[in-house]
Amino acid sequence: MSLQQQINSQLVRYMELIPGTQAFIDARTPGSHLKDNFCIIGAGVAESSRQHVHIRETSGFNIGAAGQPPGIKNSLHSHTTAELFIVFKGSFRLYWGNEGEYDAVLSKGDIISIPTNLFRGFEVVGRDYGFMYSVLGGDDSGGGVTWHPSVIEESQGHGLYLCKDKSLVDTQSGDSVPSQEKLMPVLTSKDMESFDNYTVEQMLPYVVKHSDYQSVVNDFSGIDYQQFALTGSPNSEYDFQVKSEDDVSIHAFALNNGATLPSYRRDEKQVLINFSGDTLVEVFDGEELAQVVLTTGDVFNVPKGAAISLENIRGDSFVYQVLGSDNPTKPEVL
Questions:
Q1: Alpha-carbon span 185 to 195, nearest angstrom
Q2: Could you point out which of 85, 104, 190, 279 has its C-alpha 20 to 30 Å from the C-alpha of 320?
Q3: Cupin type-1 domain: from which residue to which, for each copy (predicted)?
């Protein structure tokens, strides 16, 4: 396979995303039944074997997305690994706590790193369809989702059953009702006491609003673009705006008026999410040179160890860079 064929296979176009509508046990629960789940890189925490996965191979983290119309919710759940969101379209009300008693609204370009061991859910508010990218830590994302007891109980009334092995049984699609010993146990009141809680004030350090992005001294000594260090370890040499130990970090670049980010190589696995504009990515693996143009919403899984450069070719490019470390090393500029 040539390098060009390889990078073409690692590109997921926004306009070609294939949603799953039955990925989780709340997929038929009224108020949660019109949501789309996207597995872009890795299967994430999708529970249905029928979920489409664009790129299956992962390298320490998964990239997914959630899309839904106004008023539709993703029900209360918790993770044991990192879950970060980048809002791409619309506005989302994120709510958290054992009963979802706290909330905050995030809009386009806002990012949140949600602490583990915390129940969370979200719904789209306003009039527009909402879409946000998700970053899930780990290759297997901790083995799945822990659902609030009310979610499991209600889902069974709509033919969806969650088993102990985290698989989803759908009786409306012909599956048999699982025996009681195979079902995922419902959390007890005692179990619920082990989960954490955060007030709105305690959650604020885990959020960076797009309007509050602060550029950093960039890695490339350029003056015609900006670099942002958005989420990562407090022990990193980057001054991340959200300081969280998620095993991943999120950076971004703003390239205007034909600006070019020079060729560089990183030790960490990286994925690019092209948020706006058209961006030309040139890839060099030491032997071959290849190119791909990223348009708005496209996701590119960069071959590990390859050198890349970025060039703005239309509009103002804004590109997120997700790295497979919350304490990344500086890039090697070529």
A1: 16
A2: 104
A3: 248-330
- What order do you get walking across the sheet with 146-147 strand by strand? 102-106, 91-96, 120-125, 73-78, 146-147
Query: Over its length of 334 residues, how does the chain's per-residue pLDDT go in tens digits?
Result: 899 999 999 999 999 999 876 657 777 787 777 888 899 998 766 555 677 899 988 888 999 999 999 999 888 999 888 899 999 999 999 999 999 999 999 999 999 999 999 999 999 999 999 999 999 987 765 456 788 988 888 877 777 888 877 777 888 877 888 888 888 888 999 999 999 999 999 999 999 999 999 999 888 877 788 999 999 999 999 999 999 999 999 999 999 889 999 999 999 999 999 999 999 999 999 999 999 999 999 999 999 999 999 999 999 999 999 999 999 999 999 9
Is residue 105 classed as helix, strand or coil in its secondary structure?
Answer: strand
Type and span of the H or E element at 203: helix 200-203
**DSSP assigned state of 3:** H
Sort strands 289-294 and 53-55 into parallel, antiparallel or unpaired.
unpaired
Say whether domain 3-206 belongs to CATH 2.60.120.10.
yes
Amino acid at position 83, single letter: E
**Cα(122)–Cα(106) distance, integer angstroms:** 10
Beta-carbon contacts of residue 234 (< 8 Å; ≥ 6 apart): 240, 243, 244, 245
Which amino acid belongs to residue 288?
Answer: E
Looking at the DSSP assignment, which residues form a beta bridge with residue 84? 113, 135
- Distance between CA atoms of residues 109 and 92, nearest Å: 11
Ramachandran angles phi, psi of 173, nearest 5°: -100, 10
What does the angle CA 227 – CA 228 – CA 233 come to, to the nearest 5 degrees? 130
What is the CATH T-level fold of the domain 213-333, as seen in this structure? Answer: Jelly Rolls (2.60.120)
Q: Where are the domains of the chain?
A: 3-206, 213-333
CA 138 to CA 92: how far, in whole Å? 25
